[in-house]
Amino acid sequence: MAKTNKARKTTAKKGSSRYEFNQGLVGKPRPAANTAVVEKCTVDGCGTTADQPRPSPAMVPVEVPSTGEPARWYCAGRCAAIGRALAEVRGIDRPQGGGC
Questions:
Q1: Strand runs (DSSP E) across 4-97, as ranges?
Q2: What is the rounded CA–CA span in Å between residue 94 and residue 98?
Q3: pTM greater than 0.85 (yes/no)
Q4: Where are the beta strands (DSSP E) in 1-100?
Q5: What are phi and psi of 73, to 5 degrees?
Q6: I need a surface site. Which of 16, 32, 45, 90 has the fewest CB within 10 A?
Q7: Strand 72-75 to 59-62 pairing
């Protein structure tokens, strides 16, 4: 459960959108967590393109045909799931100009 900081001053006006969003709290927010979302695998050959020989017998090929991304070798399990997700994200059609 999140701990609230009762030392913060409440200067936002009650009923304003800022008050509603922050429950009346103002001031400096807590710093963001400094952790990697996905840590890089340290196994040699994990993530290499599948046009190369299989780096290890435990590696599995991951291919998502509709994305246009090349098939890659990944460790079975977590790395393969992350590789599939990365291929799907990379294959998303983006509008020209970098907009959303």
A1: 59-62, 72-75
A2: 7
A3: no
A4: 59-62, 72-75
A5: -90, 130
A6: 32
A7: antiparallel
